[in-house]
Amino acid sequence: MRIERRDKIEDNGFKNLMYWLGGILAVAIIAFIITYVAYSNKVKQETRVSQLNSQKIGELVPSIQTDDESLTSASSDIGKTVNEVQNITTNETINTSIENEIENQIEEENETKEVETNNEPETKKDSIENKEEIIKTEEVKKELSFTMPVEGEISKIFAKDNLIYSETLEEWITHMGIDIKADKTTVVKASEEGTVKSIKNDPRYGLTVVVEHTDGFKTVYSNLLTAEFVSEGEKIVQGQTVGTVGTTAIFEISDEPHLHFEILKDNVQVDPTLYLK
Description:
Blueprint: H1 2-60, H2 68-78, H3 82-143, E1 154-156, E2 159-166, E3 171-175, E4 178-181, E5 187-189, E6 194-202, E7 206-212, E8 217-226, E9 235-236, E10 241-245, E11 258-265, E12 268-270
């Protein structure tokens, strides 16, 4: 009896052990299945996230860049950190600003050159006009020609270094002009065009008209009877009447009627016969 009872107890213990082992194995299998399912879902989720990230990164690369160099550049940008990308963007912005500044300076220099180029013709034109004016002035100087104010014989010559005898003063004196014989009231004409500088009564040579010309020349008409044909400041032409021959010169009152005529260059009397034609 005891042996049978012991055998039953042993059988029950073995059965209980088997139940426990079976339960543990079942729990382990269930845990394995749950873990496997969870891991699979996690792997799928990570794969999906990776695909989405790859798609977003692909959108960052311009679609127009299809060559190998562009793809390489895009691939290298993907591997860079946010700070590196920001630094690159900042550098590109700075480079763009520098390039824009350089372009603006080049444009300003080109505009300045264009303005200078546009001004060159005007400068050349002004220079040409100035040269033409100088040439014209020189031509005027060259064309300046004096004519006899009255027709007649020269009774007294120009005497600056040599002396001539004055019948009126009864002595030897200098003579800073020439005396041209002419009847009283003979018309006296301007020897050259110019401007009437003065009309005066000279204490030695009587009624006198002074005409100013270009290039520092002046002509003096003295011993006149009248001078009402011109006025001071008037511009006159060559051959225009300036007065009539008279006998108003005190220093030459004993001489026959004549015109006392002088030519001055830079306010210095010169021999009129050297310039008269």
